[in-house]
Specification:
This protein has 129 residues and is mostly helical. The protein has helices at 2-18, 27-35, 50-60, 72-84, 98-109, and strands spanning 65-68, 89-92, 115-118. It has 2 domains: 1-51, no CATH class; 62-129, 3-Layer(aba) Sandwich (Rossmann fold). Helix 1 packs across helix 2 (27-35), helix 1 (2-18) packs across helix 3 and helix 2 (27-35) packs parallel to helix 3 (50-60).
């Protein structure tokens, strides 16, 4: 019963934020596993809607979702799209000036964002941790 309720809520968010009536193949199963705290590996081709699989749960679960992405241009596109539809998101990568980085970290500490995209090399940064 809980799984069904969670997926109904997920479909409401899918329509509200992304304008889709239904999930694509595989998305619903991945989202269901995430929302029910089950391990999950989703392998999908380019354009199959992988981002929805973590963006919807990010909106439903407490805290911040961290996405590790090596593609700076994709991060920017994702963040711009999410902010445009009202989902607070940001990125941390080498394009940020020191002051932008500090402001972003400040905002992270004050729960301004639901989704944060991070370049992999930032995970090795002492300043980041």
């Amino acid at each position: 019963m809980l799984e069904r309720c969670l997926l109904i809520d997920a479909k409401v968010l899918l329509k509200k934020f992304f304008g889709y009536e239904n999930f694509r193949a595989g998305q619903e199963d991945i989202i269901n596993n995430i929302l029910n705290n089950r391990d999950c590996l989703g392998i999908m081709p380019t354009g199959a809607g992988k981002s929805i699989c973590y963006q919807i749960p990010a909106m439903m679960l407490p805290g911040i979702t961290v996405v590790i992405s090596p593609l700076i241009s994709l991060m920017k596109d994702q963040v711009d799209s999410l902010n445009e539809v009202g989902i607070p998101a940001t990125f941390i990568n080498s394009t940020l000036s020191p002051s932008e980085y500090e402001q972003t970290i400040h905002n992270v500490l004050y729960d301004v964002y639901k989704i944060i995209y991070i370049a992999p090399e930032r995970l090795n940064s002492r300043k980041f941790s």
